[in-house]
Amino acid sequence: MAAHLLRSGNAGLEITIIEKRASLGRGLAYSTDLPEHVLNVRAANMSAFADDPDHFARWLKARNIPIDDPTTYFAPRRLYGEHLGELLTEPRQKGGPRLRIVDEECVELFQRNGYLELRLANGSSIVAQQCILATGHDVQRTAAGRCLHPRKSSNPPCPDRPIAS
C-alpha cells in the first residue's frame, strides 16, 4: 500500500510506516532465506503494480538473476521480499520527506477530534489523519527459534524477530 501511495504523485502526502522488523516488505511469506522456498506464482505474474505487469521481471533482469523466461520462472520468495523492500527504500534515498520509517510497534490506536493517535510500545505517540492497519501474521517465537502460528500445525523458523525474554 505504501508503495502505491508513493507512486500517487501527491507531493503533499506524508507516509509513516511503523515496523518493528529489521527489513521492510518481507513479512512472514518472504522472510525465508532458503532458495527452495519459491513463489507459487510465476515471476511474470508477480508485479506489485497492476499497471506495470513486467515490473518484477525487469527487477530480476536488472540484478542479473539468471532466468530464461519469466513466464515459466518461479523465483525464490527471498527475492520477491527484496524487491518489495526496495520499492520502499528507493523513495527514501531520493531525499524526499514523503516516507518515514519508525522502528517500533504500534500497540494502541485512538480516534481523537479529527485525528488519530497511534501509541507505540516505547510510550511515544504518532498523530495521523488516516491510518492503514496492516498487522501481518499472528506469530510468536519460541526459545527454540520456531514460530508458533495459531492456525498452522507446523512451526517454521521465525523471520528476523528477537526471542522474547
UniProtKB/TrEMBL annotation:
InterPro entries in the record: FAD/NAD-bd_sf (IPR036188), HpyO/CreE_NAD-binding (IPR038732), L-asp_N-monooxygenase_NS-form (IPR052189)
FAD-dependent urate hydroxylase HpyO/Asp monooxygenase CreE-like FAD/NAD(P)-binding domain ranges (all copies): 1-137
Pfam families (alphabetical): NAD_binding_9 (PF13454)
Domain of life per record: Bacteria
Biased composition (Pro residues): 156-165
Residue numbers spanned by region Disordered: 145-165
Name this protein carries in UniProt: FAD-dependent urate hydroxylase HpyO/Asp monooxygenase CreE-like FAD/NAD(P)-binding domain-containing protein
